[in-house]
């Protein structure tokens, strides 16, 4: 934990969940990307949906470039205070998109097998 960074409670992060006042947490660091949201390649809604929450899983899931990771530093506000506990709704869940891809492949194989057996 970097003692030079402002120490922020999860309850304070939760208050910053609006389009014009947007914070999220990645690996216990608190960021304010409010001014960047319209420039985000995935669109502003990606960031807005993470407002006031821990976005670590979502951020890692996408596999951001080194440039994107460096850009985060510009928006650093502080870090989560040791011992502060997030509310259940502050944890952004993994979308499970990897599993969806596997199911689609399996479905394609099954359909191909059915079509093949018909001829």
From TrEMBL:
Domain Cytochrome b5 heme-binding: 5-81
Predominant place of localization: membrane
PANTHER family to which the protein is assigned, alphabetical: CYTOCHROME B5, CYTOCHROME B5 A
GO CC, alphabetical: membrane
Family, per entry: Belongs to the cytochrome b5 family.
UniProt keyword annotation of Iron present: yes
Subcellular location per the Swiss-Prot or TrEMBL entry: Membrane
PROSITE patterns: CYTOCHROME_B5_2 (PS50255)
Pfam families: Cyt-b5
GO molecular function: heme binding; metal ion binding
Record keyword Transmembrane helix present: yes
UniProt xrefs under InterPro entries: Cyt_B5-like_heme/steroid-bd, Cyt_B5-like_heme/steroid_sf, Cytochrome_b5
Keyword tags: Heme, Iron, Membrane, Metal-binding, Transmembrane, Transmembrane helix
Name under which the protein is recorded: Cytochrome b5 heme-binding domain-containing protein
Transmembrane spans: 100-118
């Amino acid at each position: 934990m970097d003692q030079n960074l402002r120490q922020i409670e999860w309850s304070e992060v939760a208050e910053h969940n609006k389009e014009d006042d947007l914070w999220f947490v990645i690996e216990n660091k608190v960021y304010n990307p409010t001014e960047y949201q319209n420039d985000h390649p995935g669109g502003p809604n990606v960031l807005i949906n993470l407002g006031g929450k821990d976005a670590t899983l979502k951020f890692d899931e996408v596999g951001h470039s080194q440039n994107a990771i460096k850009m985060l530093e510009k928006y650093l506000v502080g870090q989560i205070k040791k011992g502060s506990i997030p509310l259940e709704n502050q944890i952004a869940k993994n979308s499970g998109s990897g599993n969806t891809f596997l199911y689609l492949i399996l479905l394609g194989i099954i359909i191909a097998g059915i079509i093949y057996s018909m001829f």
